[in-house]
Amino acid sequence: MTGRRPQRARDPEARRAALAVATMEVIAEAGVGRTTHRAVAAKAGLPLGATTYYFPTLDDLIAAGLRHAVDMLQTDLDEWAERLRSAPDVAEALTGLMCEYLGDRRQARLEYELCVAAARDEALRPLAEVWMRGLPEILEPYVGAAAGRDICALLDGIILLALVTESELDAPGLTAAIRRLAGT
Amino acid sequence: MTGRRPQRARDPEARRAALAVATMEVIAEAGVGRTTHRAVAAKAGLPLGATTYYFPTLDDLIAAGLRHAVDMLQTDLDEWAERLRSAPDVAEALTGLMCEYLGDRRQARLEYELCVAAARDEALRPLAEVWMRGLPEILEPYVGAAAGRDICALLDGIILLALVTESELDAPGLTAAIRRLAGT
DNA sequence: ATTCATCTTGTACGAACGTACAAGTACGAT
DNA sequence: ATCGTACTTGTACGTTCGTACAAGATGAAT
After folding, report:
1. Window 58-97 of chain B: CB closer than 7 A to strand D
2. Can you give the distance from the CA of residue B54 to the C1' of nucleotide C1 in angstroms?
3. DNA-binding region(s): which residue ranges (chains A, B) (predicted)?
């Protein structure tokens, strides 16, 4: 009375992408160390074998999930650059962008998960550097290279604080601190 | 020709402590998610059963390891307070302390591992807050509460950058940035 | 010297893991 | 229409996991 369930329409590219997305979500919820083939397959609604068919090892699967997260981050960075370009005040615009960024803590959690993983695994370091090099690059035209790096570090510290304490962002304080680092 | 190996001298307190230290080291090397009873037991040179005798569950064992890490961090914080008290220049003293702190990246890795774990598990949050509340408290007498928080965030971001890029600390740049945030 | 609670040690067990693979199905090429 | 490659799906295997527990050893109390 059973038999296997009928096969779905074939779409290898979509499967790869769906697995990467599902992996990203599992990492965000459980962490890199507790990410398993089975959890990813369940999240994606795909059979276990699909994960190993498209990604030879678990490390490959995790790397694909992190890479997808970084791709989304790059999209965000591009939007940040766009918004800053048309902003009358860089400090206030950055504060606003941070407010939005912290609206969904899952993305921030994922990014820091990536950083911790990159601190341990050299192969992941280029992924983690997308943010840490990209943001100062965006800021450099407005405040110079040194202040760009400083402000990036400040924001990273603020994000960490928000992750750990679940507290609200002190927007006016952040704007003021950015202004001090920018030297304006 | 065999038989079990002879029992060692009894010292429950020392065993608890040794297990906490071993757990801390395993977390630093493998991450919270890949920390297992067996890895901790092997690191401590104790039988597997010792881990479950002193800590009912794996979560308890991990919490003990993280708590021990935070205890060491608190000791560091006390030393930071002491050093700042007798320093002619707060910004330069902080830069020097950061240089020393980043000398052994394992401690920094462990601290960020704790932060990421605390972001996911509310029960760990008080542990992670020891640093994020303690450092601003130390800085407050010198630069005020707001600048203390800002400088703490800046330092946290710098540490994250150092973890991800393995780059050297830009000491003069850091001193200058601290001065700007302090408003001096 | 005997007792007993406490600690040590080795082993056992079911669950979950990474990975491999057989069997079946879809679909472009012919 | 058929064929062959590429994909889908379910299951199997050996390993490692968290946890439980039996059996022995210790050492303070009696």
Report:
1. 58
2. 32
3. 36-55
Tokens 């690059």 label which residue? A137
With CA atoms as reference, the chain B residue closest to A118 would be B164
pTM value is: 0.95
Q: What number is the ipTM of this complex?
A: 0.95
Nearest to A159 by CA among A116, A105, A113, A115: A105
Contact positions of strand D to protein Cβ (< 7 A): 6-12, 16-22, 24-27
The residue ranges of every structural domain in chain B are: 12-182
Q: What does the block give as tokens for A122?
A: 């050299």
H helix or E strand, kind and range, residue A34: none
Instruction: Decide which of 3.40.50.970, 3.60.60.20, 1.10.10.10, 1.10.357.10 is the CATH code for A12-182.
Output: 1.10.357.10
| b/e map B17-47, b = 16+ CB within 10 Å | ebbbbbbbbbbbeebbbebebebbbebbebe
Rounded to an integer, what is the distance from CA A140 to the centroid of its chain? 22
- For residue B41, say whether its CB is under 7 Å from any atom of strand C: no
Is a pLDDT exceeding 80 seen at residue B3?
Answer: no
CA B82, CA A4: separation in Å to the nearest integer?
A: 69
- Give Cβ neighbours of residue B84 (< 8 Å, ≥ 6 apart): B90, B93, B94, B97, B138, B139, B142
> Over the stretch A15-64, which tens digit does the pLDDT of each residue have?
999 999 999 999 999 999 999 999 999 999 999 999 999 999 999 999 99
Q: Is the CB of B37 under 7 A from strand D?
A: yes
Judge contact between B33 and B15, C-beta under 8 A: no
| pLDDT tens track for B73-91 | 999 999 999 999 999 999 9
- Minimum-distance nucleotide, CA of A36 to C1': C17
Closest CA in chain B for residue A145: B173
Q: Please report, for residues A74, A78, A143, the alpha-carbon distance to residue A83 in angstroms, rounded to integers and kept in the order given.
A: 14, 9, 16
